[in-house]
């Protein structure tokens, strides 16, 4: 049995953790032994899989010194291409394969890197017994850790702009990461009747919230290929998202639920349309249905099987 060592950034947050666990499961289903990367007491490895081309660089370079025959697959998770581009180049240049999560990432790679790149959309499970959205208000699910790049307070500001008669409620699940922003989020949750932060939640809680909401919201300033989008696609939940490249890459440029990053007024207009414009949510729901193929676990497993067949 071949061994793969999985390297991910120290203190990886929800999306990266979810991706790492899912990929480890898929590789095991394909007959691999998968272990968390460590520079000590690891079996001989044939594959090193790194999530994030910049933050895993030191660990990966040490692993390759210990396992010089191992193939290297680097998965770009977003900030490595959009914010840490220079720091990412050494691993991207060294990688036998580069995995991108949506097609717009390909434009961020050099021509030699692009030749070794493979597009693998993330999959997501569909709940067997999903909850129904409430009937007395319009619930919007926001799944985002509390840190500036996720811009979680944009939703609260947009909700404050809605008409007095609005019954929109933003329900936010997300781990407290940035202390100063967390204090703002707590204060907003206490003072804004249309915004509720519930703190960190389990994966199952997040999936149930997405399935039991009228819409899912992703206001991030930057995204690589958000798990929230594929989870919402799997649930058939309408999606409102910022025009970050990762979101556009998954949803398409003509997605009717896109709004400019950081634009609370534009988001407020979309929330108002979702609540008051007959048929708008159905248009978004149909669009999610058209893109639901992205969330297929069988498709993601097959993509990994093809990539591994190229290398071994």
What does this structure look like?
There is one protein chain. The protein is α/β, with parallel strands linked by helices and 312 residues long. It has helices at 14-29, 57-66, 79-82, 85-94, 111-115, 153-160, 179-191, 203-211, 227-235, 245-251, 264-276, 280-290, 297-311, and strands at 3-7, 33-36, 47-51, 71-75, 97-100, 117-119, 138-143, 168-173, 195-197, 215-218, 239-242, 258-259. Strands 2-1-3-4-5-6 form a 6-stranded parallel β-sheet, sandwiched between helices. Strands 9-8-7-10-11-12 form a 6-stranded parallel β-sheet, sandwiched between helices. Helix 6 (153-160) packs across helix 11. The two termini are 13 Å apart.
Q: How many individual helices?
A: 13
Order of strands in the sheet with most strands: 2-1-3-4-5-6
- The CATH C-level name of the largest domain is Alpha Beta
Biggest sheet character: 6 strands, parallel
What's the overall geometry? elongated
Unreliable residue stretches: none
> What structural category characterises the helix and strand content?
alpha/beta
| Percentage of residues in DSSP E strands | 15-25%
End-to-end gap: 13 Å
Our count of domains comes out at: 2
- Overall pLDDT level: 93
The CATH superfamily of the largest domain turns out to be: Glycogen Phosphorylase B
CATH topology name of the largest domain, in short, is Rossmann fold
Rg (C-alpha, Å): 20 Å
Order of helices and strands: EHEEHEHHEHEEHEHEHEHEHEHHH
How many strands in all?
A: 12
């Amino acid at each position: 049995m071949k061994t793969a060592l999985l390297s991910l950034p120290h203190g990886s947050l929800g999306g990266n953790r979810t991706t790492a666990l899912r990929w480890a499961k898929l590789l095991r289903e394909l007959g691999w032994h998968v272990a968390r990367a460590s520079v000590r007491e690891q079996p001989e490895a044939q594959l090193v899989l790194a999530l994030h081309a910049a933050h895993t660089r030191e660990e990966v370079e040490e692993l390759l010194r210990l396992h010089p025959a191992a193939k290297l697959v680097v998965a770009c998770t977003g900030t490595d291409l959009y914010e840490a581009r220079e720091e990412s180049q050494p691993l991207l240049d060294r990688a036998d394969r580069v995995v991108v999560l949506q097609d717009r990432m390909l434009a961020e790679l050099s021509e030699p890197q692009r030749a070794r790149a493979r597009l693998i959309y993330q999959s997501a499970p569909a709940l067997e017994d999903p909850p129904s959205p409430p009937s007395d208000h319009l619930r919007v699910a926001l799944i985002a850790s509390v840190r500036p790049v996720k811009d979680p307070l944009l939703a609260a500001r947009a909700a404050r702009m809605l008409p007095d008669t609005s019954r929109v409620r933003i329900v936010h699940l997300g781990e407290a990461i940035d202390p100063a922003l967390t204090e703002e989020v707590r204060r907003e949750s206490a003072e804004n009747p249309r915004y509720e932060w519930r703190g960190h939640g389990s994966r199952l809680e997040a999936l149930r919230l997405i399935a039991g909401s009228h819409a899912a919201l992703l206001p991030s300033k930057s995204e690589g290929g958000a798990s929230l989008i594929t989870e919402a696609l799997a649930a058939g939940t309408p999606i409102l998202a910022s025009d970050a490249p990762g979101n556009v890459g998954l949803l398409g440029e003509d997605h009717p639920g896109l709004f400019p990053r950081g634009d609370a007024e534009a988001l407020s207009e979309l929330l108002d349309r979702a609540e008051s414009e007959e048929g708008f949510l159905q248009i978004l729901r149909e669009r999610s249905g058209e893109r639901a193929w992205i969330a297929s676990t069988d498709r993601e497993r097959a993509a990994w099987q093809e990539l591994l067949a190229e290398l071994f």
